[in-house]
Every structure is written in structure tokens, then in C-alpha cells.
Amino acid sequence: MKLITAIIRPFKLDEVREALTEVGVSGITVTEVKGFGRQKGHTELYRGAEYVVDFLPKLKVECAVAESSLEAALEALANAARTGKVGDGKIFVQSLERTVRIRTGELDDDAL
Ligand SMILES: Nc1ncnc2c1ncn2[C@@H]1O[C@H](COP(=O)(O)OP(=O)(O)OP(=O)(O)O)[C@@H](O)[C@H]1O
Ligand SMILES: [Mg+2]
């Protein structure tokens, strides 16, 4: 299993959720975060105005996927989140050791 963590533009959430659902991702967790990338936040626009602070509002989207779903999920996520402008975000992938579905006690791929 892999844990995908994507930092995306907040207004892209619906598109990203739909794209991930289409490739069979069974659940996602979303957190409001702030961050900056290479431009240090300065040259990015947010809702039409240049932000005066270094940190820009983003969403962190996390989803655990089976190894066999990883490439499809990454492609779907990136395509849905892309505008082509600076600040589109980033995707991180980590190995995931264990998953437990609390209600049933199922483990790993069966628990996703
Ligand atoms: N190296 C990193 N580590 C952790 N978070 C990062 C990193 N790079 C970017 N982020 C997160 O992703 C968000 C969006 O980054 P951003 O898309 O601006 O990256 P970038 O490397 O500057 O690419 P671009 O040139 O396309 O803007 C940041 O606000 C931050 O939350
Ligand atoms: Mg940037």
C-alpha cells in the first residue's frame, strides 16, 4: 500500500475528489493547510489579489491506495489539480505499512 499526500488549490477539491473516485479510491481525508513553494508565496495570486504573507491557503488531500492503483491515482490527481500556473501544488508518496478497518477488523488491501 501507498499513502498519497497531495497539496492542492482549495477550489480544485471537487474535481480531485471526482477524479480519485473514478479510479476507485475508496476514501480521502482533507485538511486545510498553509504553505509555500519555490516562489515563497510572494508572486502567487489568491482570489484575484496578491497575498502579502508568505503562506498561502492550500488543502492537503490524503488517500491510501493499493500498489496496483497507485499510478492511476497519481495521474488522475495531477490532471484534476493542474491549472498550469505556479502554485498548482505537489504530490508526495510514502510506503504504508498497515491499514486496519476499525469496524470489521479487516487488514491492509481488504481494509482500504
Ligand atoms: N518541498 C515541499 N515540501 C513540503 N510542501 C511543499 C513543498 N513544495 C511545495 N509544498 C506545498 O505545496 C504547496 C504548493 O507548492 P507549489 O505548487 O507552489 O510548488 P512549487 O515547487 O513552487 O511549484 P510551482 O513552480 O509550480 O509553483 C505549497 O504551498 C506547500 O504547501
Ligand atoms: Mg510555487
From TrEMBL:
Signal peptide: none annotated. PROSITE patterns: PII_GLNB_CTER, PII_GLNB_DOM, PII_GLNB_UMP. GO terms for molecular function: ATP binding; enzyme regulator activity. Transmembrane segments: none annotated. Keywords: Nucleotide-binding, Phosphoprotein. GO terms for biological process: regulation of nitrogen utilization. It holds the Pfam family P-II. SUPFAM superfamilies: GlnB-like. GO terms for cellular component: cytosol. It comes from the Bacteria. Belongs to the P(II) protein family. This is P-II family nitrogen regulator. It comes from Lysobacter soli.
